[in-house]
């Protein structure tokens, strides 16, 4: 058995991201799913681009602020204590509008822990 705690604020942000991303996956020694904490200011996005996963499902639990997620089916506004779920092969792009009153803090979980992200063109 093994147990430990992690303070995301003590981890270095992932470089070259459009917002502050703290990856808990390696720090926690996780193999089966990816775990990240994001803080996105107004005008920032969470992913690098509008994208889709072939196999991975993602869930974003919003701790504070309002996360906007663009999909081919429309835009979702996800508030505190709400979860946005993207099933495999479901394109999405999460961001904070320029005119938002506050930043967004969210926890994202992706499983399985695979690098299967692909760009998605909205007009496809």
Structure overview:
- With 124 residues, the protein is mainly beta.
- It has a single domain, classed as Jelly Rolls (Sandwich), CATH 2.60.120.
- 3% of the residues lie in helices and 40% in strands.
- It contains one helix and ten strands.
- The chain has one helix at residues 25-28, and strands spanning 20-23, 34-40, 51-53, 57-64, 67-71, 74-78, 83-86, 93-95, 104-111, 117-119.
- A hairpin with a 2-residue loop joins strand 5 (67-71) and strand 6 (74-78).
- It is globular.
- It starts with 19 loop residues before the first strand and ends in a 5-residue tail after the last strand.
- The model has no long low-confidence stretch (mean pLDDT 95).
Average predicted local confidence, pLDDT: 95
Strand order of the largest sheet: 1-2-9-4-7
Unreliable spans are: none
Q: Just name the CATH architecture.
A: Sandwich
Protein name: Putative cupin superfamily protein
Keywords: Metal-binding
Pfam families: Cupin_2
InterPro entries: Cupin_2 (IPR013096), GPI/OXD (IPR051610), RmlC-like_jellyroll (IPR014710), RmlC_Cupin_sf (IPR011051)
């Amino acid at each position: 058995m093994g147990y430990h705690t992690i303070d995301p604020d003590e981890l270095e942000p992932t470089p070259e991201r459009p917002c502050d991303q703290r990856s808990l996956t390696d720090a926690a020694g996780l193999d089966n799913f990816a775990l990240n904490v994001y803080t996105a200011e107004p005008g920032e996005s969470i992913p690098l681009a509008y994208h889709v996963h072939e196999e991975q499902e993602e869930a974003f639990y919003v701790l504070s602020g309002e996360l906007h997620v663009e999909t081919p089916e429309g835009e979702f506004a996800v508030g505190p204590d709400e979860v946005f779920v993207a099933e495999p092969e479901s394109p999405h792009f999460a961001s904070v509008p320029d005119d938002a009153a506050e930043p967004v803090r969210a926890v994202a979980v992706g499983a399985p822990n695979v690098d299967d992200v692909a760009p998605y063109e909205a007009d496809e």
